[in-house]
Amino acid sequence: MELTKYEENMYNGEYGEGKAECMEILVSLGKIYDAEKMIPITSAQVSGVSYKTIGDAGLDFVVDLGKKADVTLETMLNPAGVDIENWEELGFSEEFTKKQIDIIKGYESIGVMSTCTCTPYLIGNTPMLNDHVSWSESSAVCYVNSVIGARTNREGGPSALLAAIVGRTPYYGNHILENRVADMIFDVSYDFNNEAEIGALGYYVGQIVNDKKPYFKLTSNPGRNNLKLLGAALASSGAVSQYHVEGITPEAEFARNHDSFDELETINIDETIIKDTISKLSTTDKIPDLVCLGCPHASITEIQKVAQLVKGKKLVKDLWICTSKAIKAISQQCGYLDIIEQAGGKIVSDTCMVVAPIEELDYEVIGVNSAKAANYVPNMCKLDVVYDTVENLIDMISE
Ligand code: F3S
User: pLDDT by residue (tens digit) across 255-283?
Assistant: First the structure.
């Protein structure tokens, strides 16, 4: 692999042992993928934060790295296993929380911002079109490639962290413009009414395309919140890292004008497919004992909508809205947090229904409006799931 003088010096240890180790691993990774060079990056997002998923081995890795290296650019963490401020009230164990805090402190010692979210683009880690970045949470990867038009592969947590330390990532895959073209066209005749339908579209298409890039022709603009849910679903039933929506996403025109486009297979999507997928995403028809929204982490407009829906109501089951600390703070300033808490709900920060040890709490059925959560909760948390719109879920648990 061709390295610049600066990269070579980092590789050879002139900038310390930590950077040399990071370069060595990233160069080896680049060689596996035939990368001809490294490319500078402008931001990173690091998964592998929850003690539930990385355990003691992950904690040791982070603490060890913190002794010899620092990140050199804007880097945020993925959701952790607990809400660090309200873990006790939510029912998480002290033992788990202590381990989780140690992991977060370890990341802080490397210079990573300890805000834990899968929607960093909503709170300031917002790359620009054509920026090269190194992100690892799959829905965030899908959003940043598709909706923002910055470029990242689906990194693992460690490779994103190492890239943040040296400011470089191997130049292959999604970093190369030619690899960002569409692979299959989905002509969607159905006019979407809600987020459960758009999530079902993502779930269905992800199963077909796996890691390829779908190009959607939709009848209307789904908006940013629904694009977030669409990408999360695509990335969970498949391994999609980028999609295009005609007339909406920034690289759709590039994909449309590419020589390969006219040769692509087109699949038609109608109402029957969407309704059928929605019904398959629920594992039970029982009333949820917890409705958990915010997968990916909720935006302020999604929280505003929940506040409008629960205003003046009394919730008879638990309601969590997962988001970042920053969006929770804005919710408080706007008065939404008070409205939601008065109804009996909670805004939960830094964690989510999938990476938290929610299976250790007393819940059996979780209601979600995210196809990604509906896909993961039964397997990762061993709980039943009800997949529906936010309006219907709140109706189910309101008096
Ligand atoms: Fe984010 Fe957790 Fe969903 S990390 S995308 S809220 S599973």
Answer: 999 999 999 999 999 999 999 999 999 99
